[in-house]
Amino acid sequence: MKKLFAQLLVMTLILTGLLAAQDRKWQQKVFDIRNADAQALARLVQGVMRDRDTRVIENVALKAISVGSYEANDLLAAEELIKRFDVPRGESPTGAPRNIEVVAYMVLAGKTGTVGDAVPSELDGVVKQLKAVFGYSDYRLMDTAVLRVREGQTSDSSGNAGMVDPNLPSAPWTYQMKLKATTAQTSPKGNVLRIDGFRFGLRIPYVSGGTQSFQSGQGATPIVTPNWNYTEVGFSTDLDIREGQKVVVGKSKVDRSGNAFILVLTAKAVD
């Protein structure tokens, strides 16, 4: 009896699977691309849909993208993504996808006399607003990172952001910046740069104890070598930046004294 019941259960599961498979119908849709670069846009859709049972094929000559899927929701998601990026953008002289230049300003903020007071003139307006909002009195530019990327492409950068106090022994702060895709769109007030999948990470060193060693010779002074560990802060977002505008992406405290790291972005379309 138990054996018969098990066989019936297996047959039921098989039939259920067959019926579910029959319900999954392959759906196909072709999108005419009027403004964006068809190849770049297809790559973006492929990247977003890579973990799903979806096929994306572009035809550059016909300026079209074909999307096929068993799931209606996946097809709808691809359609919304194409509509979002297939919009009028800033014209380039050659009609080809434009290059986007993104500049990241890494700013350290603190109380009077703690971080210094040195920012370039182009950040004066931003610093004035930051003082009014956050109350920090000192601001110092630690480093600047520049990324130039073609519309629809990914780009990343990494490096050293410097030290909080160059006069004190320390390890450098290190950063990593990445963006997934950028597009330039026209508006009555000028170009708007859309940045998707922006990621910024900062590794901040701190001392956790030290290793003591002795020089040879009687009465030698012991040498203590600090042990460095790292804590991380980061920002992850999608954002639109009007050309010439400076946008504060995020702020995070970085030490016990209350000093804060502030990331400011600006972007523009270049020929």
What this model shows, in words?
The protein is α+β, with helices and mostly antiparallel strands. The chain has four helices and twelve strands. Strands 6, 7, 8, 9 and 10 form a five-stranded antiparallel β-sheet that branches. A hairpin with a 6-residue loop joins strand 11 (247-253) and strand 12. Helix 2 packs across helix 3 (72-85). The longest helix is centred in the N-terminal third of the chain and has 22 residues, at 2-23. The radius of gyration is 27 Å and the shape is elongated.
Topology record:
Blueprint lengths: L1 H22 L3 E6 L5 H11 L5 E6 L4 E6 L2 H14 L13 E12 L13 H11 L3 E13 L4 E8 L10 E7 L1 E5 L6 E23 L7 E21 L4 E7 L6 E11 L1
Antiparallel strand pairs: 1-3, 2-3, 4-5, 4-12, 6-7, 7-9, 8-9, 9-10, 11-12
Helix pairs in contact: 2-3
* Net shape: elongated
User: Mean pLDDT across all residues, rounded?
Assistant: 80
Main pleated sheet: 5 strands, antiparallel
Structural class: alpha+beta
Query: How are helices and strands ordered from N to C?
Result: HEHEEHEHEEEEEEEE
Number of strands: 12
Taking the alpha carbons of the first and last residues, their distance comes to: 78 Å
Poorly predicted sequence stretches spanning 5 or more consecutive residues: none
| Rg, alpha carbons | 27 Å
What share of residues is helical? 10-25%
Strand content: over 45%
Question: What is the oligomer described by this structure?
Answer: single chain
How many helices? The count is 4
